[in-house]
Amino acid sequence: MRARVRKAPADADASRLLGLALLNTAKADQAVYFTARAMELSPSPAACDAHGTVLVVLGRLEEAERVFRAGISMDGGLPSLHNGLGGALLNQKKYDGAAEAFARARQIDPGSVVYLRQHAAALVRAHRTAEAMAMLREGAAAFPNDVLLRTQLVNSLNYEDVNPAERLEHARALGALFARVAGARPDFANTRDAARVLKVGLLSADWFDHPVAHFMSPLFEHTPAGLRLHVYDASRRRDATTGGLRKLAAGWREVESLGDASVAAQMRKDGIDVAVDLGGHTVDSRVAVMAFHPAPVCVSYLGYPATTGMAGVGWRVVDSLTDPPGSEQWHTERLLKLDPCFLCFRPPDAAPGVAPLPAAAGRGVTFGSFNNPAKLSPRVLALWSRVLREVPGSRLLLKGVGFDIPAVRERLRTGAASAGIDPSRLEVLPTTRTPAEHLATYARVDVALDTYPYHGTTTTCEALWMGVPVVTLEGAVHVSRVGVTLLHAAGCPDWIARDEDAYVRIASELGADPAGLGRLRAGLRRRVAASSLADGGAFVARFEAALRHAWGDWCGMQRPGQA
After folding, report:
1. Radius of gyration of the chain (CA)
2. Fewer CB within 10 Å, N- or C-terminus of the chain?
3. Buried b / exposed e across 313-343, counting CB within 10 Å, b at 16+?
4. Do 116 and 146 contact (CB within 8 A), yes or no?
5. What CATH class does 358-534 carry?
6. What pLDDT was estimated at residue 183?
7. Domain 198-344+539-555 has CATH 3.30.420.40
8. Using the 8-state DSSP alphabet, how is residue 310 labeled?
9. How far are the Cα atoms of 48, 51, 446, 524, 537 from residue 95, in angstroms, in the given order?
10. What is the C-alpha to C-alpha distance for residues 89 and 85, in angstroms, rounded to an integer?
11. Residues 453 and 480: beta-carbon distance below 8 Å
12. What's the pLDDT tens digit per position in 473-507?
């Protein structure tokens, strides 16, 4: 292609194609020269498409938006231009505009699963959840063999109050798609000795300032003699958290550029005994590696609140409160139970001291939730409305990703008003710049309200650490029982509601007693610090025992060909 450009430097099509070829080899900084050259020679729709695509990769989003719009003005019937425009808008957090662009691309080419996935993703970001879920369900029926679409659906179902049978059905379907591309399970050469030191491979795309990395840190800080931790880092970013954990690991491989089969092959070559996936079906996860049999024992843990549905994942780490007897029916994995709690909270270094109780200043009680806005279901908004009605003069403070975007913020306000929340009693805050600023915002909250059906995890632990009691509603499956195990482990089971009436009663009783709240606030951090929730050494001992149980199960299996 370079030879063609040299021979015909005025050939716009040659420059465009060379630019795209360079982009496909991750050379966007070179590609942009040739796509810009194609635009100069002949600003056609195809040239706009190519140049805009390169600009998006380079992060020059406003410029990309202008280029795509120019192309659309020349040929509005080219779906890739609308798709490109949607991508440029999505990355600028113009979610409603992005959804409109992807919708137009789908109108032109209704048979494209790519445009459908993009459209659904934009709707999710815009917090137009009901529209997104309807689209994903329809898409899964129309494109049953698309792994990425099915992954979007399976992950999104965790935010819906659905029958667990439906969640399991879609997870199994996704697992079957992964199994199609995986080869036969190999005959592992790992020594079958139940008592020996184990090489544990930890796979995640979140080895940075992220909840997964923070919840895993006790395992690195208290690593038992019987485990060797080898990290497979698929992260797109790295920071001080990455560096700190890396110093404590027995091995660390950066694998973000490797394919799933290659990562699994590397883990087998490294002699990993137990492979632990920490992402499940979340965004950017590499759970597909598990389909390629990276180790004799494969485990799902921490980052995903439901079954993977994958035959290659033999175990899932939970506890007896998140997954009581009978929960086995909703999993394709066997359950490893880390009682009394399946995780351990390491208090953040950036945490400021516990602030005085806001209600003590005489401004009324402030209820708050800093959970992912995707968890703010109509049901939970209606529940919070009932709480506010029970506590005269109280207010609701919400903080989360996307609330800096006017359209998203207004959509939330509209939903809250529909649920009966007086707009004058609602305050919405965007995310803060630093962890310290985020934690300091709890100085404005008297009582934290957990979400439903998708409970908070990090937010619950942080609230407790900042002296703020958390009220949670107990559900039937793991995703809506995490708050149950956290509050039990922290020594605060009285804040667990068995039904909605109990939730309103507990929250309103807390809110109606500022003096009691003040006493709770003064001692809650000490209570959490002394509880099993923050006992890193005990947690790591439980974690090792659970992995060793799974390992011992494999060691006891008959070898292929044995009688």
Report:
1. 26
2. C
3. bbbbbbbbbbbeeebeebbbbebbbbebbbb
4. no
5. alpha beta
6. 83
7. no
8. -
9. 22, 22, 33, 40, 44
10. 6
11. yes
12. 999 999 999 999 999 999 999 999 999 999 999 99
Question: To the nearest 10°, the Cα dihedral for 57, 62, 65, 67?
Answer: -90
**Which amino acid, one-letter code, is at 121?**
A
The two structure tokens encoding residue 393: 């003069």
514 prior amide bond cis, ω within 30: no
Residue showing tokens 């796979």: 203
b/e code 150-162 from CB counts within 10 Å (16+ = b): bbbbbbbbbbbbe
Type of residue found at 555: C
pLDDT of residue 21: 86
Alpha-carbon distance of 360 to 368, in angstroms, equals: 16
CB distance 229 to 198 below 8 Å:
no
* CATH number for region 2-173: 1.25.40.10
Annotated domain spans of the chain:
2-173, 198-344+539-555, 358-534
Q: Position of tokens 């979610």?
A: 95
Please check whether residue 153 is in contact with residue 169, taking contact to mean a CB–CB distance below 8 angstroms: no
Task: Please check whether the two domains, 2-173 and 198-344+539-555, share a CATH topology.
Answer: no
Reported as type and span, the H/E element at residue 471 is: strand 470-473
pTM: 0.94
Closest CA to 473 of 393, 386, 534, 397: 386
Is residue 241 a contact partner of residue 271, using CB atoms and an 8 Å limit?
no
If you search the block for the tokens 């050469």, which residue do you land on? 189
DSSP tag of 355? P
Length of the chain measured in residues: 563
Dihedral pair phi/psi, residue 328, rounded to 5°: -55, -30
Residues in the chain with pLDDT < 50? Answer: 558-563
CB atoms within 10 A of CB 203: 29
Distance CA 232, CA 203 (A): 5
